[in-house]
Amino acid sequence: MPPFLQQNQDVTGSIKQYLCEHLHELSVELLCEYIHETVLPKMIRESTGAVPTDEVYVNNVKVLLGKYGLKTIRVSTVCRWMKCLGFKYAVRKKGYYVYGHEKPGTIKYRKHFVS
Length: 115
What we know:
mainly alpha, 6 helices, rod-shaped, 115 residues
C-alpha cells in the first residue's frame, strides 16, 4: 500500500466508498478528479486552514504531497492506487455464463421441459 493511503486510513476509506458508489461510471480520471477536488482540499483545510482560493494553497499541497514522497498525483499514480485497493480493469459484460448444463437439476428440468 502506498504511504499516502497507508498513513491516511480515513482518506483510503472515503476513496473506497466513492469508488463503490460510482461503479457504473468508474474511471481513473474520475477518481483523479475526486482526489484533486475533494480529498486534497479537505486535507489542506484540516491541516492548515487554507482553501483552494488562497495564494498559499498550491504550496501547501506541495508540502503535503512531499511528506509522502510525491510531487503530484497523476492519472498513472491513481491507477496504481486503484489496483492496490482491489479494483481492476475489465471489459464490462452485460451477462454472465454459468457452466452447469450437466447438473442433475438441469438435466431433470430439461427432461420435464421436453416431455
